[in-house]
Amino acid sequence: MTKESVSSPTDHADTAPKANASSHPENSPQISTQTNSIGKTAAQIMAATASALHQVANSASVSESSSSSTTSTSAVAANKSAPSSSNTMLRDDPSPSPTPPAPLPKPKPFADQFYEAVNDVLGGTNDQQFLMLTMPGQILDPFTYQWDYQQGVKPTRVSMQEFLLSEKLFDPCTMTGADNGFTLAHQYRSALDNLTPRLDAKLAEDKNELRLFLLTKYPDRFDAYGNQLNVAQVYTSLMDAYVAEQHKFAIELDNVKKNLHSTYHKDQDYENAYLDWYFTNADSYLNVINAKYSAILQVFTPNDMSILEGILDSGTGAELEQARRVLNNFGKTSPNGSTIYPVQFVPDNWFELLTEGQKIEDALESVEALSTRLSLLETRRNSLNAQLLTLSSYLPDKTEVQTAIDNAKQAQTALDSARNDLMAGYGSGAGRVIDAVASLAQSQLFGPKSPQLDEEIARQCQYNNIDPNSTGTGKTTTFIDAIKALISADDGIIQKQTALVNSAAELSKALADASSKQNISSLSTAINSLQGQIDGLDQEIQTLRVKIDQAVLARSQSIASGDKDALASTDTLPDGFTQIVIESAASAMTTQSKMVNSATAHSYGSHFFFCGLSSSSSQADSSFQSFSASTESKVQIALNVAKVSFIREWFNPGVFALTKDMYRFSKSRISPNKVVTHDAAGFKEMQDCIFPCYPVAMVIARDITIRVLNSSSISSDFAHSCEQHSAVGGGFLFFGGSSSSSHTDSQSNSKAVSDSKSVTIHFNAPQIIGYYLEQVRPDLSTPITGASDPENTNIKDFVKAYKNMLAAMNDQHQIQQQVRDLQQKHSLHMPDATSPTE
């Protein structure tokens, strides 16, 4: 299953890196040109560096897809160049009193990261639709929805269960804890019943004039009983005669063909005989048909009559009654008294996406998830290397480090140029592909000619919706050939990446030595801190490379041996699913989300992590607070998601696009009278309406793994709280933990396993984690109470005018009948002119 269209909101993924990596951020503190502000400048260096490091450390939001989606990464772009400071003399004060740096900015809320990751890979281009996450997720039992969709008719039991899944309505928001108790069918009917047509006065008058014309008596045209015919009757009788002649000729042709087929068995003989008959006899039939048509034209042309019929049949409002009839015809009463309507799920075999019986695998250790994390770490390292160039601008005397600065700039420019050239020809998604592929290509298993690399390129092309065989703008090679050329060339992307890493290491050492010689301890501290971050990333990258090699070998060996369990594991992405991988600082879970939440949903804190933890669970709450407060704590999540759409033949939301020509009985609108934004203000307007939005698709998640870890150690209290919460069926983050399947004795859908540095939570059943809602078209109707519009008429005036027209016609008919009666009576008393006179 492919998604409609995807775009990434992140910086590094969709935009070309700046060519000048030694730039300085606009909001970074400028170096003072006065020698008496040494302490302040040192603080500025530390604050700017700490802020940059914090941004990089907390930009870890990655989403990876399996079909035609986009890999999303966050990174800190290279900064803009700082003004020259060569005339500034910086020295350390023996006892400096620097201003304390500003508090580090909080990381992006984890709820927002998750929302954007899901929406990036499943969302479409329809501005009227928005994603609403539900927490906890609703567990799905595959056996409830199974049926033979290839052979039989969907069982009523399955139809009812599917209807219940798609029928719930929710208060407009981006995250909710429950539905609002309303159902789509009931609110749809209420909305229809709240509207009535508004009749156009001028159109009503014109229609009456047309009816009057069509009912006008036509001179010298009578039926078999001597009654004079009106215009419509004359036209209909002539048209009937014309159609009858056409039908007569068609029957004659059919009989002739049958007779000739029975006489002539060769096609050529048959065709000759048929043509002889046609040229001899057809004209006589066609002349009669043409004569009948000429008789019609003398009265009224068929085209003109079609125009009149179109005018009489036009007007808004009939759609309301048609929608009500369709709704009534499709509804079936269930044994519990509710009305069930058929809903088609797309794809039809959507329940196969829920297949259970797979072993609980660590989705975070799959090849796909590890590859995504590796690409993320490479991006972070590039960002940190760019920060070294930023720090070099604070060095007054650059003589000893200028060569290292130039080498780093050249390496950065060369890497950026290669990416920019690729994106210019093949689109922004090409940059994400080369980033992911280049990260893996440095491994021996992913060499330029290895099948694993070809598979990875194909997978990344699918993720980013790129045709590998397409020729880019201004390019002569296909995309896949361009990627392979960048990978295998002697001066390719890998060499440029390596050159950047090496030049950054040389620059870091040169800056550290120079700052020490020039006695700028604040700059030296900043450089050492930055280099420490880079060294840590290098270790993580090497560890991930080893894990990826091991995972690839294990998968290859399992496939070669035909290991069914391995093939069914979550290491192999299920058909129709998209994979999402997110890694973030644990403190992001304590940052309040900007999303609009319902009163029953928590978007941050321990209630968020434990998915609605009771406030009485003080131990779990305090242990979570302690864990999330540590700068060494992280949260990782991997899951596979799919989008299942709803089709309702009985539901016609297009009716509400015509509300401008309707009255409404209630003071409340069906929906806002304008297209509102999907934010707090817009959702508030929608919540005050009768039928503001409705679900068009649901989001299913499976193979869910959550890992919380601390590089030093994780507290036993926190680990115990997680295990205990999981054992009793408690959920985590957006995912429900209680088991709803009748095919298992376990009360829990999750399993928590801990070690000294981490807690890993697996969810072994699929669940609905959200819906896509579509806003109902703006309600532009007018309240019927006190409505007064000279350009429109109500139904009372319409009926009155129509009755007056019929009364006038009846009066005229009676007068004409009286005249005919008098004429007939007078003719009976008149003497015969041919009789003899006395």
Automatic annotation (TrEMBL):
Residues 53-82 have a biased composition (Low complexity). Residues 1-10, 20-39 have a biased composition (Polar residues). Residues 95-108 have a biased composition (Pro residues). Residues 1-39, 53-110 are annotated as: Disordered. Residues 360-421, 520-547 form a coiled coil. Keywords: Coiled coil. This is Uncharacterized protein.
